[in-house]
Backbone:
């Protein structure tokens, strides 16, 4: 499977994670985004099991860059969780999916010397336009164009794009597993920094104390969290594996996040019938047509960036 196919599989797993994230962020157990980001970042410690397979020492400069990349990544995830908690998942992800490739496009040109062909540039444009279109709130009786959580979505996109550029630069000089391990250690440092902020420290500490309880609901929340993070971890691993490949374009891999919110839209429709209060999804005619048109544009963009003439590095 080539890097584009790997990236698509990765985004499907990440879409499944977002659906579970939305469910858990609506529960009493992990209702605060900082709590959820804390647990997610803490699970980064599982990279220690990968140490025998490719870990080695690196320079102080690369350690610093790895830690910065990991810290920026975890704060990007915190912003994403904040947006998912407040808005529709099928609208949050498109905004993140639009901001990430735009930011990555300019940063990759400046810092990585990456260049896209005409077809690739058109494909990126289509993916971005489709993402923006699907994010507009055109339903009746709405006083705002953009959904609640829009600003957090933009911030998440900026931070995740910046993190990806740092990580890609590290991949250019080292093997995949070593970079993955070092940057995930940086992500753990990022969650430790949450304790420096009182409004985050208190709910995190309260949540840790609740582990003494053994209610059935708490066990279900814990199992759902582990499943969500397993899906997300697998998706992130595959995504970064795609980015690390020599022929991969970091801009195109990031732009393929548009495929993730197509998956999110479909999964949200499915689960909104089962959990209508949690998985809110606009189903009026105008909203459905709007999203179908956006999906068609995204599909066209995917075809363009998948073309062998669509990427030049």
Residues:
């Amino acid at each position: 499977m080539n890097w584009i196919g790997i990236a698509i599989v990765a985004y499907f797993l990440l879409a499944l994670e977002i659906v579970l994230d939305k469910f858990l962020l609506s529960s009493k157990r992990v209702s605060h985004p900082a709590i959820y980001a804390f647990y997610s970042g803490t699970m980064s410690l599982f990279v220690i099991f990968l140490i025998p397979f490719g870990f080695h020492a690196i320079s102080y400069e690369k350690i610093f860059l790895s830690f910065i990349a990991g810290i920026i990544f975890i704060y990007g995830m915190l912003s994403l969780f904040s947006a998912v908690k407040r808005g529709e998942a099928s609208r949050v992800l498109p905004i993140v999916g639009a901001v990430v490739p735009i930011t990555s496009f300019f940063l990759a040109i400046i810092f990585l010397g990456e260049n896209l062909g005409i077809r690739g540039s058109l494909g990126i444009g289509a993916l971005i336009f489709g993402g923006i279109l699907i994010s507009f709130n055109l339903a009746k009786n709405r006083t705002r164009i953009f959904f609640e959580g829009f600003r957090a979505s933009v911030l998440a996109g900026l931070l995740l794009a910046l993190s990806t550029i740092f990580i890609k630069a590290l991949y250019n000089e080292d093997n995949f597993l070593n970079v993955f391990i070092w940057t995930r250690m940086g992500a753990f440092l990022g969650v430790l920094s949450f304790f420096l902020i009182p409004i985050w420290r208190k709910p995190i500490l309260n949540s840790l104390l609740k582990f003494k309880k053994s209610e059935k609901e708490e066990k279900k929340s814990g199992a759902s969290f582990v499943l969500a993070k397993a899906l997300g971890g697998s998706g992130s691993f595959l995504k970064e594996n795609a980015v690390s490949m020599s022929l991969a374009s970091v801009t195109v891999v990031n732009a393929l996040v548009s495929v993730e919110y197509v998956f999110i839209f479909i999964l949200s429709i499915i689960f909104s019938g089962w959990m209508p209060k949690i998985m809110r999804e606009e189903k009026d005619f105008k909203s459905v047509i709007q999203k179908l048109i956006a999906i068609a544009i995204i599909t066209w963009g995917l075809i363009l960036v998948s073309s062998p003439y669509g990427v030049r590095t």
